[in-house]
Amino acid sequence: MSTSAASATGGERITMLKVLNPFHIWALGVGIVLVGEFMGWNFSVAKGGAYGSLIACWVIGLLYTCVAMIDSEVTSTVAAAGGQYTQAKHIIGPLMAFNVGLYLVMAYTMLEAADALVVGDLMKSGAEALGYAGLDTKPFVVLTIAFLAWLNYRGVFMTLTLNFVITLFAFFAILVLFLVTDPVHPGAVLKHSELLTDLPYGWIGVIASLQFGMWYYLGIEGTCQAAEEVRSAGRAIPLGTMGGMMTLLVAASLTWYICSGLMPWQYLGQAVTPLYDAASLIGNTKVQVLLFIGTMFSAIASANGCINDAARAWFSLGRDRYMPVWFGAIHPRYRTPYRSIIFLIPIAVSFAFTGLLDQVITFSILSGLLGYTFMSINMVKFRKKWPLNSIKRGYIHPFHPIPAITLFILCSAVYFATFLGYGASLLSIMAFYIVASLWFTFRRYQFVKRGDQFTMPWPRPKGY
């Protein structure tokens, strides 16, 4: 398979470097997601209470386990930048591929904007704690996005190596906080017996909590975007993705356990930084500082990974002429999709400047959810068109088609949950993607060269 793209000079063809290993894939997936353990997940508590949030944590954990299993098989077989977009291009068709590519770009760009907002708010809170009130957050938002974009511009190896270090630190901070709460002596620090109550809004509240349960794991599928830059896709993608999913399941469970044992659900459901608040309640200054740094690092790691993934999805759309081919350029020295990285900076900053954190997060969640719904259909068609042993697969996930069916059912439940709380946002986002589809069909598709899209050396699909 040719993985080349036109460079800035026009005629020369260059490729991205294959320099990543499973640890980088883990850092990309977990780095994007771990900020959800530090904030955001707790809004599920406001919807369904503490127990409702725990149910959402495990149910959505099952959803993302299905995502990780499906991604590991298909991406290790279709190893190219663009991840799910490239899968849709080969397995379903151009219109689906365009939409999936757009889902990816919007999901990661919105999440990047939310992360930058969080960094700005954290800097403001830190300044106020030191006696500097009234700090403007916007310069920190711009500085965060600009610095991380520059890092991504300079090379993927350095970018994801940094992500590995700061993500590991943030995960370590959660483990330290868990140990400080003296979990072997229930009641000494954690007061679950006093704080946990029945479901305050019944099972409809549990269903509503599924929307923010996504925040525990949203973005793990981003590991697919690095498929073209790993040394061995068949090894690195499954190991990094499934290892990352296991890490997140542990982190999510520990986070819920700590916070639900220290704060009543009424407060926890509206807290901005629940893990940091938990550290403050313990009264240990060193742990409090550790959690402040961990929260900051988690937001930076998430934004860093989002820039990486959004740029590669946009680059892939440009390379295949779904968007102007100008975006399909690779830097001749750094071997990065530099034009796509630069192009998406003002878009992320613009959304961050709105300050509408909940709306930005909802846009990101729904864009990701649309992508997951596609994946369930894509997996069934992939196995049907190219049965086992008809093509070489880097990894084969077990129990097919149960994960695909489970994923589709759980996605449907989350759509309903989102409609309960953000019905207008759901309808407006769906309208946006319908309009985009019409634009692609009637205006952009004429520039697409169908024969150039299919780069996998596969036999004719079964039944065609």
Automatic annotation (TrEMBL):
GO terms for cellular component: plasma membrane. It is a multi-pass membrane protein. The keyword Cell membrane applies. The chain crosses the membrane at residues 23-43, 49-70, 91-111, 131-153, 160-180, 200-218, 239-258, 289-315, 336-354, 360-380, 401-418, 424-442. The keyword Transmembrane helix applies. It is found in: Cell membrane. Keywords: Cell membrane, Membrane, Transmembrane, Transmembrane helix. InterPro entries: AA/rel_permease1 (IPR002293), APC_superfamily (IPR050367). GO terms for molecular function: transmembrane transporter activity. Pfam families: AA_permease_2 (PF13520). This is Ethanolamine permease. It comes from Novimethylophilus kurashikiensis.
